[in-house]
Amino acid sequence: MRRAEQSRERRNRLIAIVASTAVVAGLVGFGSYLFLKEQDKKDKEQAAVETEQKNREKAAKKPIADEKSWDAKKLGRDHVTKPVSYPMTPPVGGNHDQVWMNCNGDVYTEEIPNKHAVHSLEHGAVWVTYNDKASKGDLKKLEAKVKATPYSLMSPVAEQKGAIMLSAWGKQVTVDGAADPRVESFFGKYVQGKQTPEPGAACTGGVGK
Q1: Of 8, 16, 72, 132, which sits most exposed with the smallest number of CB within 10 A?
Q2: pTM of this prediction?
Q3: Which of 100, 106, 111 is nearest to 169 (CA)?
Q4: Is the pLDDT of residue 29 over 70?
């Protein structure tokens, strides 16, 4: 009986050891799976960032059809307190208020002061504007684009000629809709693009609504 008892104890200890080993192996395997899954997610995110950067670089090399340009040196960049009359609507540069309009993917449903928006352009933002001729479907897609893009903002401008217009410092284009390929090209070329007088300047901490 004593030998039988010892045999059972050895067998139980062996079972316990095997079970513990299996549990540890399972935990290690599960941990490795989670690590690899997280690493794969990071790799995909990095690949997406690199692809976006390549697309922007590619877009920056191509001219944008029907784009209008102004001599940046003649636009003026002084901070002023008095009203400014801009020669184009919406404005693409010129003297402006010392405080910028928040442009960290901000979408405004009412018109915003030009004097603040121009300062945002100086910081490298792209400004999407529209009037009542723009379709709701296009506006919804453009809102999503702006909200996903730091250094961009969107607001209505009732008096502009085009239904949808994109502006950067010294640059402007009227597009046919949200699906117009010039939208991607304009964002890729001018969000913090070479035209920016103050690259890297803040797009938060300014005026917002």
Answers
A1: 132
A2: 0.74
A3: 100
A4: yes
| Residue 77 in domain | yes
26 and 82 fall within a common domain: no
- pLDDT tens for 102-122 read 999 999 999 999 999 999 999
On whether the CB atoms of residues 143 and 203 are closer than 8 A, the answer is no
pLDDT at 164 over 90: yes
Alpha helices of the chain — where are they, by DSSP H?
A: 2-60, 72-75, 114-122, 136-147, 181-190
Q: Is residue 139 over pLDDT 70? A: yes
DSSP code for 63: P
Burial of 108 from C-beta contacts in 10 A (0-12 / 13-18 / 19+): middle
Sign of the alpha-carbon torsion through 91, 129, 49, 188? negative
- Domain encompassing residue 10: 1-61
